[in-house]
Amino acid sequence: MKKAFIIILVMLLLFSLFACSEGERVDLTEGTFFFGMTSIQLHPADYYGKHISFDCFTYRLTDVNGREYMCGVRKCSAGYGCKCGKDSVIGFILLYDGEIPEPKNQNVDTPDKSWIHVEGKLASAETTEIRLFAYDEDGQIDYQREDSVKFCTFAVESLTVIEDYSSLAYYVVS
Fold first, then answer.
1. Structural domain boundaries of the chain?
2. What is the pTM assigned to this prediction?
3. Most buried in the list 40, 55, 64, 145, measured by CB within 10 Å?
């Protein structure tokens, strides 16, 4: 019980630091990525106009109508937007005038991905809901069922490819 209380207290502290930050800069680090990203997704208006930086891997989502979204994400379990309690991704839709590296090993559960460091700002204070085909119990796409995720759109001002990602957590947890 004491451990659960401490975890909840730390979560509330981190959440309030992100949501109430007076600074104009938000750095999502290894230790703050999950809670920071969750806070941004839940309260995008609080972060609109602030400079945000983070490390992620590229990930392409295709909605039920065939529209593609290039995203910067991390893998998580039961994170923001995940209703099933299974693995999901948490991150942003990326808007960038330059070249974004193509996703690598997207459908393989491995940290060997196309990692990037991005800096910029939210493109809007609203989230975008992306309707996707659901997955069945075997991890195969079920074209008869739909699910959805909500991501903020991120206007990338600078993008750097990360060659050595060994210190980055592929899988982020709360």
1. 2-172
2. 0.80
3. 40
